[in-house]
Amino acid sequence: MLESAKDDEVLTALIAALTRAFNEGSPVAGQSPERRRKIAVAALRRIRSFGRRNVSIDHRPHCIRDLAKGLADYLEAESNLVGPHMKDYQFVASGLLDAYQTVDGS
């Protein structure tokens, strides 16, 4: 479970990134603060599992694709039907990675 002060700091940054994406028109960033928090928790878990799943944090395009896929899997009933919305997920994933790396220092 995510509970440490560092987790709170990272989640705050991720939620802020989701809010920015929503304000910029992203249809997948979450309309409510509660929804954004759930998305942020899912994103943080996905990011923290990069190493275990052989996703190098140093290979940004791969990280963005992986995180976008993870978000689509989390948010969509049938993620294989996301289609053009995958660009929206990649946009959100990019902002989330930026926020994570700013706070975490990776």
Throw out a few tags for this protein.
106 residues, mainly alpha
SSE inventory with pairings:
Elements: H1 5-23, H2 33-48, H3 60-75, H4 86-104
Helix pairs in contact: 1-2, 1-4, 2-3, 2-4, 3-4
How would you characterize the overall build of this protein?
This protein has 106 residues and is mainly α. It has helices at 5-23, 33-48, 60-75, 86-104. 29% of the residues are buried.
Characterize the largest beta sheet: strand count, sense, and whether it forms a barrel. Answer: none
- What's the pLDDT, averaged over the residues? 91
Tell me the span between the first and last alpha carbons.
Answer: 21 Å
Structure annotation, total helices = 4
Unreliable residue stretches = none
Determine the oligomeric state from the structure. single chain
Coarse shape:
globular
How many beta strands in the DSSP annotation?
Answer: 0
Radius of gyration: 13 Å
Helix-strand string: HHHH
Helix content, binned percent: 55-70%
- Strand-pairing-aware structural class: mainly alpha
Beta strand %: under 5%
